[in-house]
Amino acid sequence: MSTLAELAGRWSLHDDQARQLGVVLELLEQDQHAPSSVRGEAALDVHAADSLTALALDDVRTATAVADIGAGAGFPGIVLAIALPAAAVTLIESVRRKCEFLERSIEVAGITNARVVNARAEDWSAGAGAQDVVTARAVAPLSVLCEYAAPLLRLDGILVAWKGEVAADEAAAGERAAALLGLRSEEPVRSAPYAGSVAHRLYVCRKIAPTPARFPRRAGMARKRPLGGAG
């Protein structure tokens, strides 16, 4: 089990950032409507430490525009907003109840560089072509995530997807979808967010060409008819 001080030290968070992170975790524990079953001490590892592993990527550390798809309870989006105060972080969440929790977290912790958008990723046209990084944790298969992310990314921007061990068919479907969308899969980054964590990787896809104008398809189609096949 990590401590907040250990986690802050590992990722070079200053005192106020550690305080903000503590406030977010406390709200998660106390709010009965929080959209996560992992709370208390476990949340520091399972949510916060896991979110911060993205800072191992240079593209994430230097990002100025980040969009978190399916933001849920705020992991990784809110944690990355705390860790990257110079970045504008958009938390995209389609469920209004979850958006309300995200908004409370931002307000209570005093996070000034994050905002919540109550929409599906396919419908957020305001963010198209402008994001340095798109993140997604426990949201969808790789092929679906590629279709969500590609229209939002600028050229040379990256999708970062938190995954355990990905089956060969999902990986192959993700590769096929990436190729259709102007993305290129990079080598997954193995990470160990905390002692005793299970097999864990960050899957990265970089935007190397413009995404065809027919994307995004209308909301729901990426899941209903995945570009790279069912995976």
What's the layout of helices and strands?
Layout: H1 4-10, H2 15-30, H3 41-52, H4 58-61, E1 65-69, H5 77-83, E2 88-93, H6 96-109, E3 114-118, E4 131-137, H7 142-149, E5 153-163, H8 168-181, E6 183-185, E7 189-190, E8 201-207, H9 221-224
Parallel strand pairs: 1-2, 1-4, 2-3, 4-5
Antiparallel strand pairs: 5-8, 6-8, 7-8
Helix pairs in contact: 2-5, 2-6, 7-8
Please give a structural write-up.
With 231 residues, the chain is α/β, with parallel strands linked by helices. Helix 2 runs antiparallel to helix 5 (77-83), helix 2 (15-30) crosses helix 6 (96-109) and helix 7 (142-149) packs parallel to helix 8. The protein is built from 9 helices and 8 strands. The protein has a single domain, classed as Rossmann fold (3-Layer(aba) Sandwich). Strands 1, 2, 3, 4, 5, 6, 7 and 8 form an 8-stranded mixed β-sheet that branches.
CATH class: Alpha Beta
Low-confidence stretches: none
What proportion of the residues is helical, as a percent range? 25-40%
User: In angstroms, what is the radius of gyration?
Assistant: 17 Å
Helix and strand string, N-terminal first? HHHHEHEHEEHEHEEEH
Per DSSP, the total helix count is: 9
Helical/strand content category? alpha/beta
CATH topology: Rossmann fold
What integer is the average pLDDT? 93
Strand element count: 8
Percent range for β-strand residues = 15-25%
Largest sheet properties? 8 strands, mixed
In total, the number of domains comes to 1
Q: What is the CATH architecture assignment?
A: 3-Layer(aba) Sandwich
